[in-house]
Amino acid sequence: MILTLLPKNLAKSGFSFVAGKGDKECKECRFFKTCVENLKEGRIYIVSSVRNIEHPCSIHDSGVKLVEVIESSIEAAIPKKFAIEGSTGIFSFSCKESCPSRDYCMPDGLIIGDKFEILSIKEKIECPLGHNIVRVTLKLKD
């Protein structure tokens, strides 16, 4: 379980977001560690529960709420020969700008060099570059 703060209008169970690095004003805030430093920049998180604790915020007029989050699984494309459920790997893939499957080949929350574990294997993806790839659900490993 990871605790962080979100604007009150976004603090809802099931809400998904990509963690940022915070604004300039955030660094001066007494909640900086909880709000920003508890999360890894660029990673996707899902709100698992909302606590009934609110704080004022200089960035968000309505204030923020304390929430529990978990790091999200990620849908991605990998070469079929490496797609083995339960296996681990290091993400390193490329894609064309105009590729219709680019969201899987270069998904939010995943960068080249990230270690991952494959949770499940989905369908084959047609690749305009001729790569033999499949869609998988994966989770990041530390």
UniProtKB/TrEMBL annotation:
Residue intervals passing through the bilayer: none
One Pfam family of this chain: UPF0179
Source organism, top-level taxon: Archaea
Family: Belongs to the UPF0179 family.
Full protein name: UPF0179 protein AMQ74_00534
Gene source species: Candidatus Methanofastidiosum methylothiophilum
